Amino acid sequence: MRPPIAITENHQTPLQQSSAGFLAPKYVAALLILISCIAFYEFRSSTLIGDGLRHLPALRTITQGPPAVFQPRPWLEVYRAHYDRVVVHNHFLFGLAMRTAFALQRALGIRGDATIAIQAVNAVSAAIAGGLFFVLALRLGVPRRISLAVAVGVCLSPVYLLAATNVSEVALALPFFLATLLVLADREFLGRSAVLAGILAGLAAITYLLAGALVPCVAIAIIASRFPSRSKITTLFLFLSVFALVLLGIWVLVLYLSGVHSPARLAIAILKFPQQGTYGGFKWGSLVATPIGLTQAFFPILPDDFRGLRSLYHQTPSVALVVGMLSLITCAFLARAIYLLSKGGVTRNVAIFSSVLAFLLVEAVCLWFDPYYPKLQIFALILFWLIVAVGFTSSQSDRAHHWFLLLFVAAVAACGVRVLRTNIQPSQTNKNAQQLHAVVGEGVLITGWSSDVAHLWLYSNGDNIIPLPDFAFARNLQPSRVEADLDSIIKKATADGTNVYFYGVFDADDADLTNVYDTRFRLAGFTSYLRGLQQNVRPVGRFEQPGGHWTLLYAYNP
After folding, report:
1. For residue 87, is it left (φ>0), alpha (ψ between -120 and 50) or beta?
2. What's this model's pTM, rounded to 2 decimal places?
3. pLDDT digits (tens, 9 = 90+) for 299-319
4. Which of 48, 154, 179, 463 lies at a C-alpha separation of 20 to 30 Å from 194?
């Protein structure tokens, strides 16, 4: 076996040079894409992600059957009427892309909900990204068999499968994200390559905002490269200007077509985040939680009812010990790879140096926002795989590193196979949603954010569902306005003879409710307000949740 290739200044192996026939990298990549796409869709998850389900009322309406008929909404409905509710900022093109996919689904005569189109697009997107990762690893000098093994490891990583087999918004950005890195790996990242990288990075960021974390890292890598100074300035200017033009151009164009015409409204729509100041913030505990969140992306080690490390340690110390050990191993694995890269001159290669910097930036975002948020950690996961694959096969490594890497791939793949098996099992969450829909019907349901309630959008248009966080955001987090409007809705419903239900609102203790509503959402006194409403309710049902606990459904009795 030929020795690994050292990392040099954007050194490009001509896709391992020994390609021939059906073993050529392009055919292997195409086969990987085909197999992955079929597997992702055939093993699509029966339990769907709430953030993706929130888009359904913006994509279609349900005309109650039998059978139920799903009618598409206007093309830009998500930007006109649901801009803040579905947090369009974070994944701007997702709504338009999935509305297009739903239109194609109907044109092909495929009946059913928009979730069919969403899961199909996600399967295709994730499969293409997996094929691009294989080609990228080859271009960076990783031997073919290890490139293929690591690409399979990427595709079978649990967090990657969450994007590929579900209705997550992040999968759509993955091909653009990896294509940007692939362009960076060109031998001469100058001129046209810089323009193409800017276009791809802009498309990645407009599709999922965190993918834009790659941009400042590429800029730093260009500055640190060994290009002549004049070439650096030209390349940096072309890359950043094209990126900004694509990102802002698409954003402004779609908003303008959606009816936002004045410059002031356009600026507010782009710059104002509806949840700004509600989430995020530095906590000392996040320094420990962030590497555990990264490890969770590879190995589903945390229980379904996970409520924090302190609670995990008190309830199941043995599980907490395993979590800590796996996290240390994962971090040591990464640290060793970065050390090997540094010995080989990591700053000489724009693609690798950008990947290392982007990994650190993404992890910083996770530390600030939510260490366990899988849609954020997926970018760190992809970059982790790339860094480790190149580091463990560089000229500074030995054969033992190859075997450690393959062992890591096998362990992650085993967890991924388990995830695929879980995906096709009956969904307790979906069952709860069906039962909730049968009980609530056309009544008003006041609730928090929960997976059960999100699945209700599979069976109704959601007009009667009032998630309290969304309700508060729509009223600019003004406590008096939130309480007054909620009282008005309850009084009107009871006057009209419509039942009012509460689900997942009163189950938490006062400390948890205060932390969510009074502290995070800055609704002073809202916990006391909810406890006042609780005096006039009675339980009418209970629904099993992961971990064996139950959530109660209450009916309001004025």
Report:
1. left
2. 0.91
3. 998 887 787 888 888 888 888
4. 154
